[in-house]
Amino acid sequence: MNRQGFAVPSGIVVGSLLAAWIDGLSTVAFAFVIVLCIGFAKAIAGLFPASKK
Amino acid sequence: MSEAVGVANILKCMGFLGLLLVSSHQGVAAEAGRDDAQAGSVAGPVARPVSERGKIGEEDFQEKKLPTGGAAALRAERVFALPGSSWQTRFGGTSVVVLTRKPLAGERDQYHAICKAWINNFLSIGVGRDPLVLPWETDRIMAVFWPLDTAYPDEGKLGNCDYLIDHYDFKVGQQAADSVEASQGPLLVAWRRIDPGRKASLSLRSLSSERSISDAFEVWRYRIQLQPESWLDTLDITVLRGALRDFLNRNSDVLLCLVGSREGRQCVKGGV
Fold first, then answer.
1. Is the Cβ of B3 closer than 8 Å to some Cβ of chain A?
2. Which parts of chain B register pLDDT below 50?
3. Residue of higher predicted confidence among B233 and A33
4. Which of B3, B249, B253 lies nearest to residue A3, judging by beta carbons?
């Protein structure tokens, strides 16, 4: 699995942890946090392109 | 190799967030324990005739032990501030729930939540009408005031937040806001009688839900019971979390819609 492949699950995990910490979020807000974290993880993964072998 | 470093960095981030989560739950548990301990002694906003107040106060005095140790220097209690009374100088500490204007259409729920948090988070020591007979040392009390615009409020309605909002004394609120150079309310302001120039404040402007406002009052109660040297105007993590929660709950549908529209989806007004 490449870095982009890691971005979605790690975004979901980090987003879930963040939403749990904030606590009391509505379903829509929870979804937004997850989407935001996935996007953030993808952006970070995009900053470091895989090295060519 | 570099992939392994990237994975390690992600794991570090997750570990950090996990620690934050655990520490926040410990904080909530500690606050819940304190609430449980006080649940039995929380009284409603009882307005007592002056003649009866001493007697009831003596009974209360047996239950209400003033802080003798630890970090607490004062004990926070709630009182109504009535026009014409010397409420500002009677207690060791004074705190005011500051509202600076009559509620606009969308603000009434927020004011209502502030009123409920004030009632739920502090024990009542009655109406601040002169002379207020208290059997215990008032120097050890941080009185948290709700200013009223009438000297003779309807004592049967002092637990009714609609009544309290309608009869809030905005002149007092504006003066208190001016004293801490805050242009907008709602906020909480506190000072000690021995050092009225040194004031603490906590803005409630970004909080809208009942839970977030109640959490902020918990933080405020803890803070103002401490010595003024410990009054920090820095942003508290609990208040920050409440502000973030309310912001996301209020605006996530629009934000999610905007994110979705970048991917070619159609946003429907008022939903995703």
1. yes
2. 1-7, 10-11, 13, 16-69, 130-131, 264, 270-272
3. A33
4. B3
Q: What range defines the domain where residue B245 resides?
A: 235-272
* Residue A16 belongs to a domain: yes
| Dihedral, CA of residue B256, residue B257, residue B258 and residue B264, to nearest 10 | 120
A26, A32, A35, best to mutate vs chain B, most B CBs in 10 Å: A32
Q: Which run of H or of E encompasses B76?
A: strand B75-81
* pTM of structure: 0.69
DSSP letters spanning A9-46: HHHHHHHHHHHHHH-S--HHHHHHHHHHHHHHHHHHHH
Interface pTM, i.e. ipTM:
0.84
Residue-level pLDDT at B70:
53
Residue B112 dihedral angles phi and psi, to the nearest 5° = -65, -45
Same domain, B91 and B169: yes
A53 in any annotated domain: no
* Domain-located, residue A13: yes
**Total tally of structural domains belonging to chain B:** 2
8 Å CB contact of B256 and A14: no
Q: Tokens for B87?
A: 């409420």
